[in-house]
Amino acid sequence: MQPASSSSRSTSLKRGIGRAFTYATVGAWSLFTVFFVVWIVIASLKKTRDLFSEPWSLPLKPVWGNYVKTWVSSHFGDYFLNSLWVVSISVCMLLVVCVPAAYVLARARFRGREALANFFILGMGVPIPLLFVPLVVIMTTLRMGDSLSGLSVVYVALSVPFTIYVLMGFFASLPGEIESAAIIDGCSDFQTFWHVMMPLAMPGIATVAILNFVGLWNEYQLSLVLINSPENRTLSLGIYSLISSMQYSGGDWPGLFAGITIVMVPTIIMFVAMSERMISGITMGGVK
Predict the structure, then answer these.
(1) Among 49, 82, 88, 109, which one has the highest count of C-beta atoms within 10 angstroms of its own C-beta?
(2) Nearest partner of 227 among 242, 243, 238, judged by Cα
(3) Is 101 found in the same domain as 239?
């Protein structure tokens, strides 16, 4: 009995060490990230000379004018509204298209279902840069180039594979007995989906909504390729234009950090407000 007991203690010790190392690594990375987020916010409230002379100190008198200047003079207010419009419309369109599609692919039984599901999954492996030229040609032909509506359509098209793939896992994890009970009670296929299964999958739907919102909010490459007019720029392009202008107009670093803070705030609010629902959604999607 002693060898078995010794082996069990050794295994428990190894698991404990591995768990402690994982927690320490995640904790250190979290502290590192939080530190630099806080530092960016502090730096955005300083004057340029104070930022370089005392980079790690708190501002004696916060310069809120950096945000006003960035929002108005650098047109970040317009960029913010552009990003908010494009991302909100894209996420709503994605949910309208992908939620019922994922439900059918996960729960229905028909010939070619697996092939169709694999077709969407294969779309996740296509490198986005390979699509730049075809996208420009297609959007120009449709007269949707250099427009926020055209950018939104592209966002939706390229986000469909990931969204359907993730939602399929959530719908597949729901108990089949609930669906059967709804059918026995006289619900049609649409009523079963709309009134029974979709409410149960709301944590998963919220999860993909958050992931898509954050990903599209920070998207840069497609915006750079498809948007040319300054009035149609998104926040990511606004940051790039602000950095480019600093090469010729001097280094307004506090203004740049103010712009970065403006970009970060919506995603931070989204995660804080929806973190519990997102965690429950991820947990639900991982249980089959």
Answers:
(1) 82
(2) 238
(3) yes
Helix, coil or strand: residue 287: coil
Domain range for residue 117?
75-251
**How many domains does the structure of the chain reveal?**
2
Distance of CA 95 to the CA centre of its chain: 14
Counting runs of H as helices and runs of E as strands, what totals does the chain give? Answer: 14, 0
Asked if 184 and 230 sit in the same domain, the reply is: yes
Buried/exposed code over 11-24 (b: 16+ C-beta within 10 A; e: otherwise)? eeeeeeeeeeeeee
pLDDT tens-place values along the chain, 288 residues long: 455 556 666 677 778 888 888 999 999 999 999 999 999 999 999 998 998 888 889 988 999 999 999 999 889 999 999 999 999 999 999 999 999 999 999 998 889 889 999 998 898 999 999 999 999 999 999 999 899 999 999 999 999 999 999 999 999 988 889 888 998 989 998 999 999 999 999 988 989 999 999 999 999 999 999 999 999 999 999 999 888 887 766 678 999 999 999 999 998 888 888 777 666 666 655 544
Q: Which residue has the tokens 């190392």?
A: 21
